[in-house]
Design a protein that fits this description.
Length: 203
């Protein structure tokens, strides 16, 4: 990861525009129509399309990761579409779980153990990139690639991000959420009314 790549890809809004649009479209669909009746064929096609798009994003760069030079056209197509394709695949999972067709997956994702992580997800999102950036900026020599090194570095960055996100959530996010409940009590009451309905719908 170079400074040029970070400035052109990660810090600019337009590379992520496709994923934003997918999220907005999903939110609008679920807000506009709460009940959806999906037959077996629709569910099968949806799951196959979702799995295909996500797997294509993961494995399309396999040959490039092995040292082969990417074709210019293939590189452009992947750079333009891979975020949108991944977001669309994940959006299908969220959609079927929200409308009551998630089955075992919905029960797993609704597991109470994930509740603390759901409260930390925004802090994790904000903190993970600065931690990665600091980690990379400290390097003064080339690091040999090995799966063990990648795995240990991944879990190291993950644990540091989780620990810092707890403090970040308690120091910033949680107080502002409490202030929002104090300043806008009607909004908080509306949210409390919606939660039992959503829980009843998912169960």
């Amino acid at each position: 990861l170079t400074k040029k790549t970070a400035n052109l890809v990660y810090f600019r809004p337009y590379p992520h525009l496709g994923a934003y649009c997918v999220g907005l479209a999903l939110g609008y669909i679920l807000w506009k129509h709460h009940k959806w009746s999906l037959n077996k064929l629709t569910q099968t096609v949806g799951w196959m399309t979702s799995a295909t798009s996500c797997l294509a994003v993961l494995f399309a760069t396999y040959s490039w990761s092995r040292g082969n030079t990417a074709d210019a056209v293939e590189g452009v197509i992947y750079a333009v579409l891979h975020r949108t394709a991944w977001a669309a695949g994940v959006a299908w999972v969220l959609f079927v779980c929200a409308v009551g067709h998630g089955g075992v997956l919905n029960k797993f994702l609704s597991w109470q153990l994930f509740t603390p992580l759901s409260r930390l997800c925004y802090s994790i999102y904000l903190l993970h990139f600065p931690i990665l950036w600091i980690r990379i900026s400290w390097r003064r020599s080339l690091v040999p690639f090995h799966h063990y090194d990648i795995i240990t570095e991944f879990f190291g960055v993950l644990m540091i991000t989780l620990v810092l996100s707890v403090f970040f959530h308690l120091a910033f996010e949680a107080p502002f959420l409490k202030l929002e409940q104090i300043w806008f009590p009607e909004k908080s009451k509306t949210t409390e009314v919606k939660k039992p309905l959503e829980n009843a719908h998912t169960t």
